[in-house]
Amino acid sequence: MCFPFLTQRKKLLQTFQNDAHVVSAVVGTQWGDEGKGKVVDLLSHSFDIVARYQGGPNAGHTVKYDGKTFVLHHIPTGILRPGISCVLGNGMVINIESLIHEIDQLSKQSIDVFSRLLISENAHIIMPYHIKIDCASESSAHADKEAIGTTGRGIGPAYADKARRTGVRIGDLLHPSLLEKKVKSNVEYANKILRAVYDADGCDYAEVMAKLEKTAKYIDKNIVNARQYVCNAIGNGKKVLLEGAQGTHLDIDFGTYPFVTSSNTTIGGACTGLGVGPKDIGTVIGIMKAYTTRVGNGPFPTELEGPKGEKMRKIGDEFGATTGRPRRCGWWDGVAGKISVQLNNIDYFAITKLDVLDTFESIRICTGYKLGNRVIDYIPSNPEEACAMEPVYEEVEGWNTDITGVKEYEELPEQARNYLEIIEKITGVPVMLVSVGPRRKETIWKNEL
């Protein structure tokens, strides 16, 4: 028996394998949580290497199959496919204890990790004092009503040390004397900040070193020059899939600053976070939820704060995979989508969670922002102006039927197809696949690459 889903998927994979370009990239196009984990899992079958290029364990990728749920925070979801190598790039910041826990959890589910995981020697380590400073800073900001809404995982302080050129890198674990010197200096500096600025307890140098020495023995054989590894693989014709965390509008340079993450989530981060040349990237796939969500504070023009927002959150199970925090929910934002296309040179969209809209009688699409007496098609850099924007909507008819069992694009209700085609028209980018549920098989392939 031939299943249409499997036939379309096979054709897509053959297209990947015959493509002249050996590198493809997956980027989030909203404020994160778009469903990149599932899409990377679906695509990774036709690649040799899946490499992550930025972010830390403040991001969680969730994949469901065979009745199991996998939540990954550091490791690319390609690890769930046998034979695929996974790389943690230099653009990442890594909590080693958290990474080891993640490896252990996967190993308990009979997934071979150690023989397939490579960690860049230039990736920075999230240290205990980074977490303390992050939490203390956010608590202080909450008191002043100026909180960013971070996860408290130490991401920002780790990147700050990287920019200060004082960070501890993964490769330092292989050089004990250098490691000791760096850690001692950093602990002394961090403790001064914790005590003087935040009136908080500092870290004990001996305890920090003991943990590092213990964890170093666990991953030392996985530490490599990741740039060289990936570039050599590309030169040898290996297929490489690049994976980002968070989303375009959380980019440190182009997102809704200061309510952003601390790294470059856009396609440029793939080059700096792995050492891949821009001309090597042949295809960019943008992951976009059929509606919009955001975690933490900051501008969110299409946010629904009433019953419809609660309904969307409940149906979509919109709670953070890493923190459990409820996500803010709202209608799909065409302006944010077009900006993402410009920033990332997106070739195809993967639309996720279309099924969440099944029971909405009407659906709104944001086509512009009203700021005062003007209608604009960009997000102002001034956060006060960005928060004051009001969405300009186009309203379309909903489909009011369960689509989770649909396998072919033509079998979708006319209203659902109309909705997707409006997204294509607004952004100028074709939809490659549509996710109508969390499992691998709950996917409709609309276009081949």
Tell me which CATH architecture of the largest domain applies here. Answer: Alpha-Beta Complex
User: How does the overall form come out from the CA principal axes?
Assistant: globular
Task: Write down the Rg.
Answer: 22 Å
End-to-end separation? 26 Å
Kindly report the average pLDDT value: 92
Report the major sheet.
10 strands, mixed
Total DSSP E strands: 20
Structural class: alpha/beta
What do you see in this structure?
35% of the residues lie in helices and 20% in strands. The chain has two domains: 21-121 and 225-445, Alpha-Beta Complex (Adenylosuccinate Synthetase, Chain A, domain 3); 124-222, Adenylosuccinate Synthetase, subunit A, domain 2 (Orthogonal Bundle), CATH 1.10.300.10. The protein has 13 helices and 20 strands. The strands form five sheets. The protein has a ten-stranded mixed beta sheet with strand order 9-7-5-2-10-1-11-15-19-20, sandwiched between helices. Strands 14, 16, 17 and 18 form a four-stranded mixed beta sheet that branches. Helix 4 (128-143) packs across helix 5, helix 4 (128-143) runs parallel beside helix 6 and helix 6 (176-196) crosses helix 7. The radius of gyration is 22 Å and the shape is globular. The chain is α/β, with parallel strands linked by helices. Strand 16 (362-371) and strand 17 form a beta hairpin. It has helices at residues 4-18, 36-43, 96-108, 128-143, 155-164, 176-196, 205-219, 226-235, 267-274, 307-316, 334-344, 383-388, 414-427, and strands at residues 23-28, 49-52, 61-65, 68-72, 85-88, 93-94, 117-120, 124-125, 223-224, 240-243, 281-289, 292-294, 328-330, 332-333, 348-352, 362-371, 374-376, 390-397, 431-435, 443-445.
